């Protein structure tokens, strides 16, 4: 990927996933596609649906980055059972699939990228994004695990791509991963599972994009956990 200046990078890339795990829809793609073509902070939003497959999901992601040359990449995924918008802080270099992906692959304790670090931190102003949702009254948390399934696979692959193509270059693109809860029409089939309306999720994504594009140092506000 050719390095570009920030003035030339005027696109935000949003990705969501196809349904998996027996679900007929995936709330990430249902929400993401609502923002396709919209303008936020002088950036046009481009949206891509990723396959819920190890390996192939990254191929699609990298192709989309090359095509759209974004200044911000936010990958969105379903986290059934979570009640908040989860801004992921870290991705780890391991695939450990509890269930098979949509192609029948089920890697267990497999390194995602052999010559990469054990983990990458999100390249996002996560606390600024967190506070923005708090102030809007949207349930939000900073999460310290993106799991070990395709979501973590995509987050790690994204951050490795950024590191390899840009290093510590301050002109680098921003990137990270956001988990969202079930939609109500999914939660009704999972006794006791929390949900969040698509309207709320879309509003949250708009704020996350806006604050993800903010310049300057990230805020330092407490958002940690005790366990």
TrEMBL record:
MF terms (GO), sorted A to Z: pyroglutamyl-peptidase activity
Residues at the catalytic site: 88, 151, 179
Chain coiled-coil ranges: none
A GO BP entry: proteolysis
Catalysed conversion reaction: Release of an N-terminal pyroglutamyl group from a polypeptide, the second amino acid generally not being Pro
Principal location listed in the UniProt entry: cytoplasm
CDD domains on file: Peptidase_C15
Keyword list, A-Z: Cytoplasm, Hydrolase, Protease, Thiol protease
Pfam families: Peptidase_C15 (PF01470)
EC top class named in words: hydrolase
EC number, UniProt record: 3.4.19.3
A GO cellular-component term linked to this record: cytosol
InterPro entries for this protein: Peptidase_C15 (IPR000816), Peptidase_C15-like (IPR016125), Peptidase_C15-like_sf (IPR036440), PGP-I_bact-type (IPR029762), PGPEP1_Cys_AS (IPR033694), PGPEP1_Glu_AS (IPR033693)
Compartments where located: Cytoplasm
Free-text function comment from the UniProt entry: Removes 5-oxoproline from various penultimate amino acid residues except L-proline.
Assembly and binders: Homotetramer.
UniProt similarity note: Belongs to the peptidase C15 family.
Protein name per its UniProtKB record: Pyrrolidone-carboxylate peptidase
Source organism (scientific name): Pseudoalteromonas phenolica
Encoding gene, per UniProt annotation: pcp
